[in-house]
Design goal:
The structure holds two protein chains of two kinds.
Chain A (H helix, E strand, L loop, with lengths): L4 H11 L4 H15 L16 H6 L1 H17 L6 H4 L1 H10 L5 H17 L6 H19 L4
Chain B lengths: L4 H14 L3 H15 L17 H19 L4 H4 L1 H10 L5 H17 L6 H19 L4
Helix pairs in contact in B: 1-7, 2-3, 2-6, 6-7
Classes of the chains: A mainly alpha, B mainly alpha.
């Protein structure tokens, strides 16, 4: 993904303040609430019967943290997202059978969670930079699909 | 995918809370859309799309008024937005995907300004509402 120096700086500045576990849990929780069909991948997570059940579900929190930790790794390799996420792409296609459209949705949930928790830092320019990154990660995760 | 009574109430309550600031937030959402999704600028080649532009503010007011109309006519969005659908389909020829991009940026804007109100349930209600608005806007497309 092609980012200007200013965009890279905006991303890393904000990311330095982010509680990765908290944002990850919120983003995944919001995905499962707002787009209920995504729950199909998490049948073993237990009670997902309501918004409050989802947001307080320990499996959702833990998995959300794991997903965002992986995203965080990606931020260290912005010049080679496809390489960084190659193995995860194969996993999501061959084992997990996830429609890549859902990566785009989760990317938007990460953006919304960031805006929610960091309102003053999440300027239009910072959002634009993050939209580029989430699109790049979604594409990278879809790259090995066949 | 109609809004349940509870979801309708959530949307109306937030709209009431926003009061006369709807225009300010829609204008911010438009600015975010143009920056985050540059392809959307192709529909406004003759405008000044820089931050603070008077043209974006004017358009923000129009969009805000249309959304407020929609909130007040949730029972008949297709009817309420029929004329706007004609305009966007036949005169401006806007690809409807762009309405979703603006909708996303409006959610981002509201998450920033109303963090205490922006629960997952509120986000879902707003998301459904904006999808219904998008469908209504696309209803006159050939």
């Amino acid at each position: 993904v092609h980012l200007t120096a200013a965009e890279k700086s905006a991303i890393l500045d904000l990311w330095g303040k982010v509680n990765v576990g908290e944002i990850g849990a919120e983003a995944l929780g919001r995905l499962l609430v707002v787009y209920p069909w995504t729950q199909r991948f998490f049948e073993k997570f237990g009670d997902l019967s309501s918004a409050s059940a989802i947001m307080s579900n320990a499996h959702v929190k833990s998995h959300g943290a794991k997903v965002l930790a992986s995203f965080s790794e990606g931020l260290k390799h912005l010049e080679d997202l496809k390489g960084t996420f190659a193995k995860l792409s194969e996993l999501h296609c061959d084992k997990l059978h996830v429609d890549p459209e859902n990566f785009r949705l989760l990317g938007n949930m990460i953006v919304i969670a960031l805006a929610h928790h960091h309102p003053s830092e999440f300027t239009p320019c910072t959002q634009a930079a993050f939209q580029k990154v989430t699109a790049g990660v979604a594409n990278a995760l879809a790259h090995k699909y066949h | 995918m109609a809004l349940s009574p509870a979801e309708q109430e959530m949307v109306r309550a937030l709209w009431k809370k926003m009061g006369t600031n709807v225009c300010i937030y829609v204008t911010e959402a438009l600015e975010r859309t143009f920056l985050a999704f540059p392809s959307t600028k192709t529909y406004f080649p003759h405008w000044d799309l820089s931050t603070g532009s008077a043209q974006i503010k004017t358009h923000g007011q129009k969009v805000a008024d249309a959304l407020t109309l929609a909130v007040n006519q949730l029972y008949d969005l297709t009817g309420a937005l029929s004329a706007l659908s004609d305009l966007h389909a036949h005169k401006f020829c806007v690809n409807p995907i762009n309405f979703q991009l603006l909708g996303h940026c409006l959610l981002v804007t509201l998450a920033r300004h109303y963090p205490g109100d922006f629960s997952p349930a509120m986000q879902m209600s707003l998301d459904k509402f904006l999808n219904l608005v998008t469908s209504a806007l696309a209803s006159k497309y050939p």
